[in-house]
Amino acid sequence: MLENRRILLIVSGGIAAVKAPDLIRRLREHGAKVRCILTKAGEQFVTPMSLAALSGEKVFQDLFSLTDESDMGHINLSREADIILVAPATANMMAKMTHGIADDLATTALLATDKPVMIAPSMNVMMWNHAATQENLKTLQKRGIEIVGPGAGDLACGEVGDGRMAEVADLITALNTFFQTRKQSGPLSGYAALVTSGPTHEPIDPVRYIANRSSGKQGHAIAAALADFGAKVTLVTGPTQEPNPNGVAVVAVETAQQMLEACLAVKPVDIAICAAAVADWRVAQASDGKLKKTNGSTPPALSLAENPDILATLSQAKTDRPKLVIGFAAETENTLENGTAKRTKKGCDWIVANDVSAGFGGDTNTVHLITDQGGDSWPTLSKKAVAERLASQIATHVKQNF
Ligand code: C5P
Predict the structure, then answer these.
(1) Which of 45, 140, 240, 351 sits between 20 and 30 A of 17, alpha carbons compared?
(2) Ligand 1 site, residue 259, Cβ cutoff 6 A
(3) Angle of helix 168-184 relative to helix 217-228, nearest 10 degrees?
């Protein structure tokens, strides 16, 4: 369950911070991507250098760092993760979280996040049992913060009792359980979704092909977001460098015709999202052998044939039409108008119209969601955030209409 999960690890200032390097190592062994925030007090126990070396990522420490803010603002930092794990969470950190104090990068990220938060308390037994900490614990639990540990045993201060941070293995188990439970109880659990992604490759001969610059990032992120919401997702993808999303059945294809066949084989589904950049044309007669360049000969003429339109086929199907079909419209001008026209032309329910004048393949997307209610313009977001927002709109629609 941790493969490709993005974990923002906040290391605050307790002796258990020395376990952070081992925690990062184990999380990465499970396939997770770890990014760290180290508090000033945390730095007394573990160095930023060791966390950076083990996570393979820059360690964030300063709320008012100009370079960090331009690179990855504190709001984005808190939202780009799938979960925030505070380990260790000191009594002071728990108190600040309870009262919404945001006086450094860690506490600001915790206040700004829209992501789940898990904490691993670690402190002296008297501090843990203190009425203030116990009250704070109750408040945090009530707000849905996941609490792991603490365990009982010898404490670094020489006393014995509750207050030891949960072991690394227990934290890994807790994270696994968290993702598993969320999937099973997600708003799209019980629904099947089909997502197309990536470019298609249309062969010219056995070694050459016609393609486009689609990275597959947006389609893959949508498949991952729908799976996280509990849907049974099949991703039909053209050739991309993107890793297979967690918990998603992947069918790899090359050409538009193969993509159509794969999509039809996946039906019936409740939801279909066509995010692939399908080639409009294929070479009418791809050569069986490699085309040879001979001196003085004229270059071969490529005659093209039209590819099937997968989105239109799914949208206009007479049988088993998915209840919600969503297409993409990559536009370089008049995005909203062209997207609206495309919705009617293809017969789909929603169109995600995006401006690709800046090019394909980036990590952000500026989109308009066009439905029968009109267009809703979203701010520029990471492709992952676009996918999550789309998945949550789908979940709302499914709840109201299916
Ligand atoms: O017509 P246009 O390529 O602009 O439409 C884009 C939308 O149509 C996208 O959702 C894309 O996945 C889908 N499409 C398709 N099959 C095609 C061409 C486009 O599914 N042959």
Answers:
(1) 140
(2) no
(3) 90
